[in-house]
Amino acid sequence: MGLPYSGNDETINGLIKLVRSDTKSDSLITFCGSAAMLPETLSNPKVKALITKATIHRSNETVLKSMSVIFSDSPMESFYLLHQYLFEKTPFYNEFDFPREIGAGCSIHPSSAIEDGVKIGNRVSIGPFCYVRKGTTIGDDCRIDANILIGGDGFEVKMLNGVRRTFPHCGGVRIERNVEIGSGCVIDKSMFDGATVIGE
């Protein structure tokens, strides 16, 4: 990204926007554009790398000495551009690179599409004109009605260089067992890792 940095090399296996968000990754990078938000940002022990302004780093060197710090005049913008780069140019987001798996006793309408990277449990019914995208897990005994999109990108819109842009969602959707979803629904996947969850 052509940005200066300080600190030790860290192996990062996840990105996180809100440090209180749920994530299965144990070594995270995030961003902080305001010194007032730094204590909350550092409250998550999984955060090992930070994109922030050089001025914030200079006035907080003691608390930031144990992590890698990338300097940017626009930390949020650099964070989302890093996410975009990892999505487009690297295998960083490859958790769902596997052939689709469909359990026993399922009924899937022929007009519906199931992408690779999807796991469907047993006795699941999927009606007409549904689209189930990569990263979705559907538990046993679920009923998915007609015209439903599961695993779409959410509305993560950010202003970068004066232009509004949307960014890809790379997480998943987990629908637990015995769920019924009515016709015409859209369920978006999570932004980074983890999942949008509909409980049993």
Short description:
With 200 residues, the protein is of the alpha/beta class. It contains four helices and 20 strands.
Report on this model:
This protein is an alpha/beta fold. It has four helices and 20 strands. It has helices spanning 38-42, 54-59, 61-64, 75-89, and strands at 5-6, 14-15, 28-32, 47-52, 68-71, 101-102, 107-108, 113-114, 119-120, 125-126, 131-132, 136-138, 143-144, 149-152, 157-160, 163-166, 172-175, 180-181, 186-188, 195-198. Strands 1-5-4-3-2 form a five-stranded mixed sheet. A five-stranded parallel sheet has the order 6-9-12-17-20, with no helix packed on it. Strand 3, helix 1 and strand 4 (47-52) form a beta-alpha-beta unit. The model has no long low-confidence stretch (mean pLDDT 92).
Question: What features would you highlight for this structure?
Answer:
elongated; 4 helices; five-stranded parallel β-sheet; 200 residues; alpha/beta; five-stranded mixed β-sheet; 15% helix
